[in-house]
Amino acid sequence: MRGSVDFSRWAVVLCKPDAVERGLVDAVLARIEDAGVVVRARTDLVAEAWQAHVAFRDMLADPGRFPPDLPARLDETYAGQPVTVALAHGGPDIHARLRQLIGHTDPAEAAAGTIRGDLGADSLAAASREKRLVRNLVHTSDDPPAARRDFGTWYGPGRALQVSDFSRCSVILCKPDATERGMVDAVLERIADAGATVTNRCEITVQPWQIHVHYWDLLVDADRFPDRDIPACLEQEYAGRPVTVALAHGEPGIHARLRDLLGHFDPTHAAPGTIRGDLGIDSLDAALAERRLVRNLVHTSDDPDAARRDIGTWFGTARRELLTPPVPAQAARPIPDPLRQPRRTP
């Protein structure tokens, strides 16, 4: 997996023990995001000695520049101490940009406007007197080879972007009309271009039970739709027909952001810039006249509980490993937040 990642666009951000102890992790990561860098896969962990040794191997391998007790200082600072790591994504210059943003190694020498200059409270002189490492809040990968090493050091094999809960994952259902119109690629590209990581694309033929489980809320509240036979409409529109499902991964809040990106359930009322607004051709009026469901291309999970159910419905209950997607190798942009959408309506 790591061999396919373009590490010229990825850096590991290490918020050091002093940043954790001072409660500055959020501020540090926010400063990085405010600089236009996408930050994801935030992980809190307790550092092991070997991780600090590997992360700072260049210092350990250059004893002429550093004090002879550097190994002991690293162990004292990191071993058994809480740190926070995250992945930062940007253009090929991301490593130089981040190093400039965090500022000089010595917070006392760091320029105003840099993270260490504005938030740092230590100095190299104080650290030297006390025979310890300088407390300068944050480290970022120096270059692509360092990013590759840092990634393996802090995340380890198979731990990239691991989703510990369903707040970071949504199921995408490209409906039969998207499949029949050849719009699946366009829909998934719009979602990926908006900053979500799209994985595990799968083409399937819908079984009746899947659509019953998926739209359970419409079935149990069918009296809201006296003009239509909801069970019959669902089976007519979905059962035995091809659909495409995929997973979208992102930060908490992805469900609302994706729903906003999809647009209003009635394509004729969906705003320009939304998927349904730009690509939809059906209308609620036409659906009502024909006593069927509106054809609006795509559905995404409403919330974390729905994502949990949707994964079981469309991928199978034993597919939890799908929640660990690969690190994306392409540039990402934040998902826009147009008008929030109303409750789902057929």
TrEMBL record:
InterPro entries: NDK-like_dom, NDK-like_dom_sf. This is nucleoside-diphosphate kinase. It is an enzyme of class 2 (transferase). Belongs to the NDK family. One of its GO terms (molecular function) is kinase activity. Residues 12-162, 167-324 form the Nucleoside diphosphate kinase-like domain. The keyword Transferase applies. Residues 323-346 are annotated as: Disordered.
